[in-house]
Amino acid sequence: MWVERIDEAIATVEQQEKERQQGKVRRPPIPDWIIELSIGVGARPIEVHVGGCYAAGKRHRAITRERAFAALADGIRACIHCRPDTGVGGAVNNSPTAAHLRCQQAR
Predict the structure, then answer these.
(1) How far, in Å, CA of 82 to CA of 53, rounded?
(2) Looking at residue 95, what DSSP letter applies?
(3) Rounded-to-integer distance, Cα 20 and Cα 61, Å
(4) CB–CB of 33/86 below 8 Å?
(5) Where are the domains of the chain?
């Protein structure tokens, strides 16, 4: 009786691990840039982030580099944690990879 319970527990753990691995493979890639949106109907952009920024809220949308640059030029604030303004068009570095690294270091 105990052997049967142990076998069931092992099968359950193996199935959970298999599903976790499938989730990793099927997960969409992290976008390079995201824009955080305000609350409510007609939500408007409020902040630009590097994709994967831990400070981004739940309401956000993936955007292109060009749209991120345009949003920053229109006065939408840049996240103070991941500093997308330095990665989009700043003189410091022009690559999203550097911005991703800064975001990881801010953690």
Answers:
(1) 6
(2) -
(3) 25
(4) no
(5) 33-106
Distance (Å, whole) CA 22 – CA 33: 25
Residue type for 83, please? R
CA neighbor of 106 nearest in space, from 35, 54, 64, 59: 54
Q: Residues 28, 30, 33, 38: is their CA dihedral positive or negative?
A: positive
Residues 42-59 pLDDT 10s: 889 999 999 889 999 899
Token code pair at residue 11: 């099968």
The pTM score is 0.61
Residue pair 85/74 in contact by the 8 Å Cβ criterion: no
Given strand 33-37, what is the order of strands in its sheet?
A: 60-63, 33-37, 45-50, 77-78
Is residue 78 predicted with pLDDT exceeding 50? yes
